[in-house]
Amino acid sequence: MEHLSDKARSLINASNDEKIFYINTDRWIGYPRSQEVLNSLEDLMCYPKTDRMPNLLIVGDSNNGKTKILKQFLKRYPFDIDEDTALNIQPVVMVSAPSKPDENSFYIRMLQELHTPYVKNESASVKRERIIRVLKKRQTRMLIIDEIQHIIAGSLNAQRNLLNAIKDLSNTLQIPIVGAGIEDAFNAIQVDSQLANRFQLEVLPRWKINTLDDTKNFARLIASIEQSLILPEASYLYKKPYLEKIHYLSEGLIGEVFQILRKLAIFSIKNDQTCINEDTFDSVTLSTPSNRRKLLSQIR
């Protein structure tokens, strides 16, 4: 069973429920592009404090690994307590942008993420001062804002106010801001030209199989995921024609790839199959993201 990871191999005689639970458990699988983005984040963490801190914008389609990369980076800089001073240390703070661009809502999100008490009706300026005070005490060196494309969901004035609030935190604390979101995130940042000029851009493209190198990279990804599928025989999903089927069904989105392989593996486990084969693909209902969107549009 060399096709399995050590952990998956240790579960080969476990119950079906245990196997399925393990297969459905989130896990990190590194790949070249993710490592490049992580390196960019590390560069920002090491950047000296200046009056004009550089920022980073990570853009990619939904379900293509942005949040997973950010959470992996967070694990490198976890919340901690200084043994000497007993102070809370939080090198990186990550928060999701509010669904609409509202400065007060953003500050509330921040305070909740920081587990800091606040009075809902107090002014935004008071919340801002509290956030700055807490971030300084916790020696925060980076603020990450996920789903930053939500900024464009409001009026131009609301967008500018929220971007000014973000820029103010960066200037006051002299820390880099990292934004992440879909393509609209780029447009959201452009509302403030001064802030936009500070953002470097990292794009997470969809996986392709157009060239030999692209195909090899995609095959490595599939092979890495297959190691966790707890089936007694290798399925060789990283070879044709399976590789092409998985790419077509996933439309090159890494989150879709994970979900497809999980469904196939769980069906195989429930039906006592030793591996995933052509019959498995025929038996499991699999649909591309585009087809699902078409189906949804029919009921509106």
Describe the overall structure.
The protein has 300 residues and is α/β, with parallel strands linked by helices. It has two domains: 6-27 and 207-298, no CATH class; 32-196, P-loop containing nucleotide triphosphate hydrolases (Rossmann fold, 3-Layer(aba) Sandwich). The protein contains 14 helices and seven strands. The protein has helices spanning 6-10, 16-24, 32-45, 66-76, 103-113, 124-137, 156-173, 184-189, 193-196, 212-226, 242-250, 254-270, 278-283, 289-298; strands at residues 55-60, 80-81, 88-89, 92-96, 142-146, 177-181, 199-204. The strands form two sheets. Strands 4-5-6-1-7 form a five-stranded parallel beta sheet, with helices on both faces. The protein has a two-stranded antiparallel ribbon with strand order 2-3. Strand 2 (80-81) and strand 3 form a beta hairpin. Helix 5 runs parallel beside helix 6. The protein is globular. The chain starts with 5 loop residues before the first helix and ends with a helix. The mean pLDDT is 93.
Output mean pLDDT: 93
Which spans have pLDDT < 50 for at least 5 consecutive residues?
none
Radius of gyration: 22 Å
Number of domains: 2
Strand content: 5-15%
* Total count of strands: 7
The CATH top-level class label of the largest domain: Alpha Beta
| Largest sheet, spatial ordering of strands | 4-5-6-1-7
Shape: globular
Helix percent band: 40-55%
CATH topology of the largest domain: Rossmann fold
Could you state the oligomeric state of the chains shown? single chain
Please, how many helices? 14
Main β-sheet: number of strands, strand sense, barrel status? 5 strands, parallel
Termini gap = 48 Å
Known CATH architecture of the largest domain = 3-Layer(aba) Sandwich
Please trace the helix and strand order, writing H or E for each element.
HHHEHEEEHHEHEHHEHHHHH
Which homologous superfamily in CATH is the superfamily of the largest domain?
P-loop containing nucleotide triphosphate hydrolases
